[in-house]
Amino acid sequence: MEYLENRELSWLKFNKRVLEEASDSNNPLLERLSFSAIYQSNLDEFFMVRVGSITDDEKSGNTKKDKKSGMNASQQLDAIFTAVRRLQPSAEDSYRKTMSELSAYGFEHVNFSTATKEEQTFLELYFKREIKPFISGLVVNSSLPFPFLKNKELYAVVQLNAKKGISIGIVPINNDHSERVIPLGNGGRRFILEEEVVLHFAHLMFKGYKVLDRAVIRVTRNADIMVSGKGADFRDRMEELVAKRKKLAPVRLEISDDFSREALDYICKKLKIKNVRVFTSRIPLDMSYLFQLQELDDRPELHYIHRSSRKPAALADNRSVFSQVKSKDMLLSYPFESMNQSFIRLLQECAVDQKVTSIKITLYRLARGSKVIDALCTAAENGKDVLVMIELRARFDEANNIEWSKVLQKAGVKVIYGPKDYKAHSKLLLIKRKSTGGNFDYLTQIGTGNYNEKTSTLYTDLMLLTCDREIAQDAEMVFDCLQNGTFVEETNKLLVAPLCLRNKILAMMDEQIDISRKGGQGYIGAKINALCDGTIMKKLVEASQAGVKIELVVRGICCLIPNVDGFTENITVRSIVGRFLEHSRIYIFGSEHTEQKIYIGSADYMSRNTIRRVEVATPVENDKLKRRLWEMFRILMNDNVKARIMMSDGTYLHVVPKEGESVINSQEFFYEQAYKNLENKQNRQEQLRKNRESAVKKGSGKTKKHVKKSDKI
After folding, report:
1. Active site (annotated) includes residue 425
2. C-alpha neighbours within 13 Å on the C-beta side of residue 697
3. Which residues pair with 387 in a beta bridge?
4. DSSP state, 283?
5. The domain containing residue 33 runs over which residues?
6. Which among 425, 583, 654, 706 is annotated as catalytic?
7. What's the number of domains the chain is made of?
């Protein structure tokens, strides 16, 4: 259909927006390098997961066509490879341009043609002493087996002279005894990469052979693994599968330069990979070292303005978080507000609170040195009933989560792994605490992001803390079902996938359609990471045709094309790609001056989230918090620095401020707002302190005791 786009090609457009940040002159130079590295890292994962999955479909003879584009697996792969090749020149140009501009600050990526004679002499000695003793070259030909090439590892390959057939030399680059970035001067800012040194001296690894050609290669392997089931042996099977992933089939071969065609064909044959999957890059094949360069120069103009998460202004220091939430709902916004000084503080307080009897939580991704795990273990060791649903199938975090599950069990935590065939992606916490008269209070936390202290400083996310009884009852049902391997079928307030999230979202969309058809002003808004759920997109088209105004902020994949006459002319789609990764999800039904419903949650508008995972979204019912979310959404919709707007042909146009228009960078705006809120709170507290002191000094008749009492009132 003309208003739908293929999911994979839409994702590649998102990565193109990331790449645009690598060449944006408004970004500091070293930050631009970070975006080059992020672009490549994104592409690696895309090949490992999405291309891997489609490749499996192609190999299995699956003739099923993509519903959005009508392409089968082979056609999708051809389109993907074409799109990736078109992006490569921009990736190379942005890297070269940034490095060129960084030369004014002493940065220089040297190769052997630009190295001085003294540096060349040093590098030869360095190779012989620091690299060669720890690596080995392997000759491969018709009588010698081809080695296993590890996923995303670098290898130097050389074509060797042979009397008959093809002879190849392979040298693994990864060397734990030396650094990949070899400093040559300027405090390490003048450097050469280890793979370039190994490649240059590769002939020394193959004495008795003449080297005819040489290049660096890198293999990307399929990583699309999935295990179903539960049971006592589930963790053991996951460990086996994680190990198996390392040996899955190659889906891409990258090569650093032009290379002998017959030698390349030989390598492709041995890897069982088609030539169409070979991608040439004239910049480093692994760009992860670029993050290391950021640490070599602290000049402010090379970096973003330093930002640190603020202590939430809504939280007082002299009362427990639980007691404050009991008084009123709280909405926290990361990275602008501190996770350590809010959520982690809550867990740590509850872990030692004698009145807290139980803590239940779902975990998807965690930091390496997780304070969340520490608090949960402390709670269990203090005799509390602690239940943790940890998702062992969180892609690329499987090994980390497996180890954390062992730590939790050792501390006495009850650990479960979620339902068969359905990942539990929800961000849900339920705390039970004794109150007066033998009753209990419940605190429920529902978030859009993981309980990960590291990513909470890099991703934008939202978290609601509430003592609402009905929400707690719904949360209790979620945990009961997770333990039993069943699904929540009906709720009071929460939206819970897979059975009662999408249907309720569709029903709320229908309400807005009905309003518009009756002559009112229907409105649907959403901030999500991806939109490709066919049922939801069909409903959005219906809503647009009914005259409902629809505003979408979609960071990544968006398979629905706006402004197509007769279908989506009332839909606006924006994408914000900036300093922080936009990760929060907000669902809005109804305009500002109507009976507006606003939710936050863990689910994107993707069928994998709405009907194939356990996801949770919560209504935000406090008027002040609803207004805050609405105002946040308006700021996002008015971003004219980091926003792109999707056009009717599927392309994205970078939004720029109009003449006389205020400049709005939404992420910087929210940080300034967090700074200002905390500063205002501190000013009020300081003024209160001065008022107290002044009242005492003036002998107003108040004793210190009276002053404190009246101020408290």
Report:
1. yes
2. 6
3. 360, 414
4. S
5. 5-105
6. 425
7. 5
